[in-house]
Write a structure and sequence with these properties.
alpha/beta
């Protein structure tokens, strides 16, 4: 159990339609013996949507992980100097977050956590979920793929007929992606099957 005892930052951004799938992945990582530190973007932490109440979602994740959520930039900053995480996963990672990561912007708790964590040369793993990934954001994904210690959960198109620019990670592959990233290995990042 490679993840046993690992301190994993699990950062959540505002791709609200994937939130239920994220819950099951946290359960899997907990079953592996990992210590999960939840980190929320401002939107993921505060916005109620047709997919549910933000307060209820945050509370459920805090209860599952046994850790309070990091939800401010000030709380995220010590991740770097304290070397608090073995790896940091952003799942789901929106196109907005990808664009900001690629250009060095740190205006949310998730982005500050990523910046702080990356100073320690430890793995940052991205599980993309973006409707514009094959549009204007494609260049930002390319930039991130070239950065040392940045890894991607394998991703593909989810509904190419109705959303031709959309890409989404196969969240079922989070565990194996984390294990590979800890060995500084990238799983094949792109695949052809439709992600549902």
């Amino acid at each position: 159990m490679k993840l046993s005892g690992c301190n994993i930052g699990f950062a959540i951004t505002g791709s609200f339609c994937t939130f239920d799938k994220v819950i099951s992945q946290i359960e899997i990582l907990k079953d592996e013996g990992a210590n999960i530190i939840p980190i929320f973007s401002f939107h993921a932490y505060n916005l109620d949507t047709r997919f549910g109440s933000a307060k209820e979602y945050v509370s459920k994740i805090e209860t599952m992980t046994g850790n309070p959520a990091i939800n401010t930039i000030q709380q995220a900053e010590p991740i770097g100097p304290g070397k608090l995480l073995d790896c940091l996963l952003i799942a789901p990672c929106t196109g907005n977050t990808i664009a900001k990561l690629a250009t060095g912007i740190t205006d949310t708790p998730v982005l500050m956590a990523a910046k702080a964590h990356m100073r320690n040369n430890r793995p940052l793993i991205i599980a993309i979920s973006s409707n514009d990934a094959l549009g204007i954001n494609f260049q930002n994904i390319g930039k991130l793929m070239l950065i040392k210690n940045v890894f991607f959960v394998p991703f593909g198109q989810d509904h190419y007929e109705t959303k031709p620019n959309s890409l989404v990670a196969d969240l079922r592959r989070i565990k194996e992606t984390l294990e590979a990233a800890l060995d500084r290995q990238q799983l094949q990042p792109l695949f052809y099957e439709s992600v549902k």
